[in-house]
UniProtKB/TrEMBL annotation:
Its main location: membrane. It comes from Limimaricola pyoseonensis. Keywords: Cell membrane, Membrane, Peptide transport, Protein transport, Transmembrane, Transmembrane helix, Transport. It is a multi-pass membrane protein. It comes from the Bacteria. This is Dipeptide transport system permease protein.
């Protein structure tokens, strides 16, 4: 009987899928998320290889070819497949290199906002009630302001540049990580494994970073994916308003700002950067929804 029982346990262990396989099983059920994932992979590839796959230098001006239409339109040329902007710069090269700036913005903002937010959230979750109340009221004050307006004010104080725009966006997004981390920590503190760790003599830092934090990562990962798209969108908005990346940087929002006066007679100079922002942000949001479905146990099908 013991032998049969051990065989049954071994069979169940063998049948149980690995974490990565289980994650992919739930993730691929959301077809929109899979589509978003592959678009995001293409976006990362373009961002990594833009200097080599772009046909021209993004800042090089071909003055004899200003506002040349895309190749499929009358007057277009294969030398500039997506046309040129008002200064004769190749639109395809600028769009490809713009992906590098958007990816850089997303990575930096998410790393800075998540690192600071997780630390403050852990501190709030483990701290006495009075300190927790002070931290959360500060976060509520930041969240009370419209995010783009607060980012604009911060950039106006720091000075218009892409780096300052990233700092401002990271500060604006940080309260979301603080609230999320604190809520997850408070939900974990009364569980048996935390009590066992305390009885075993685990110190405060070990409890925070080794015992509790790994079990709070699922919602934080989902938030990071959604923050990535928000960072790209906010950086483009700040660039469009002249408070982000400055010309001649081929950042998508700045490209929109430079071309807005030509929208009626050269649709491609505005439409193409707008489409790049739309497709990238939509793909990352779809991927974020799939991550939430795959990482949230409450949403998993039995």
């Amino acid at each position: 009987m013991d032998h049969a029982l051990s065989e049954e346990v071994e069979t169940q262990v063998e049948k149980r899928p690995g974490r990565l396989r289980e994650f992919w099983f739930y993730f691929r059920e959301n077809r929109g998320a899979v589509f978003g994932f592959w678009v995001f992979v293409a976006f990362v590839f373009i961002a990594a290889t833009a200097p080599w796959i772009a046909p021209h230098d993004p800042t090089e001006q071909f003055r004899q070819y200003t506002l040349l239409p895309p190749v499929w339109q009358e007057g277009g040329s294969w030398t500039f497949p997506l046309g040129t902007d008002p200064l004769g710069r190749d639109m395809l090269s600028r769009l490809l290199n713009g992906a590098r700036y958007s990816f850089f913005v997303g990575i930096v903002v998410v790393v800075v906002a998540a690192s600071g937010g997780i630390l403050i959230g852990l501190l709030a979750g483990f701290s006495p009630k009075w300190l927790d109340a002070i931290i959360m009221r500060l976060m509520d004050i930041i969240l009370a302001f419209p995010s783009l307006l607060l980012a604009l004010v911060l950039v106006a104080i720091l000075g218009p540049s892409l780096i300052n725009a990233m700092i401002a966006i990271a500060i604006v997004l940080q309260p979301h990580y603080v609230r999320l981390t604190r809520a997850s920590v408070i939900g974990e503190l009364n569980k048996d494994y935390v009590t066992s760790a305390r009885v075993a003599g685990a110190g405060l830092w070990r409890l925070m970073f080794v015992t509790v934090l790994p079990n709070c990562l699922a919602p934080i990962i989902v938030q990071a994916a959604l923050s990535f798209s928000t960072a790209i969108l906010d950086a483009a908005a700040l660039g469009f308003l002249g408070m982000g990346a400055q010309p001649p940087t081929p950042e998508w929002g700045t490209m929109l700002a430079e071309a807005r006066e030509f929208i009626l007679r050269a649709w491609w100079v505005v439409t193409l950067p707008g489409l790049a922002i739309l497709i990238t942000v939509l793909a990352i949001n779809l991927m974020g929804d799939g991550l939430r479905d795959a990482l949230d146990p409450k949403l998993k099908r039995s």
